[in-house]
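F.,

This is the one I mentioned.
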């Protein structure tokens, strides 16, 4: 079970050391709930991958069926060429985390990429779509670096609360409808 318990009470893949998961484009490493194993309390979902001070690399992976696809607590792994889908939240980046997210695709029911105070992620060629909230949430005190990424959400594509101004090149770009956001007609793009 997760410590601290407030993160999620479902089964998780907890990393406090180093995790290297490297698949290929044709054979990704898959992280998903085992059928019938997630339990009724979690609503058939698992908690996701939690890096708690751990490190590592996820490359050519697929994460699905989780409450939060990847949670980073004081951790800075590299996540590239990875798809996170059928999750409530895509990636939650907490204080002390400065991950490299490269060519990441997120399709989440609630929120896409969440940058909390004290985080400093680099997002390059990231596409995040959220069905209920923001594709990208940047809380006060977060310092993300954005390049060539796009975000879409029902409430807002991007919610920027950081003290530094958002990149000037955030603008609308067309986006296809997705299962997480079927009515979405546009999204915010960062060049």
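My design for it:
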């Amino acid at each position: 079970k997760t410590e601290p318990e407030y993160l999620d009470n479902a089964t998780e893949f907890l990393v406090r050391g180093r995790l290297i998961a490297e698949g290929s484009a044709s054979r990704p490493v898959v992280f998903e709930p085992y059928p019938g194993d997630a339990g009724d309390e979690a609503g058939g979902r698992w908690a996701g991958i939690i890096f708690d001070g751990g490190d590592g690399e996820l490359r050519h992976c697929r994460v699905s069926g989780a409450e939060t696809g990847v949670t980073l607590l004081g951790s800075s792994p590299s996540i590239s060429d990875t798809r996170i889908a059928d999750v409530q939240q895509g990636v939650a980046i907490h204080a002390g985390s400065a991950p490299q997210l490269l060519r990441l695709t997120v399709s989440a029911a609630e929120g896409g990429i969440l940058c909390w105070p004290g985080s400093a992620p680099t997002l390059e060629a990231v596409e995040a779509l959220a069905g209920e909230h923001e594709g990208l949430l940047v809380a006060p005190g977060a310092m993300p670096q954005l390049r060539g990424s796009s975000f879409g959400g029902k409430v807002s594509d991007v919610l920027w609360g950081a003290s530094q101004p958002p990149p000037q090149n955030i603008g609308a770009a067309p986006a296809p409808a997705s299962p997480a956001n079927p009515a979405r007609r546009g999204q915010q793009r960062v060049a």
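The chain has no helices and 17 strands.

Talk soon.
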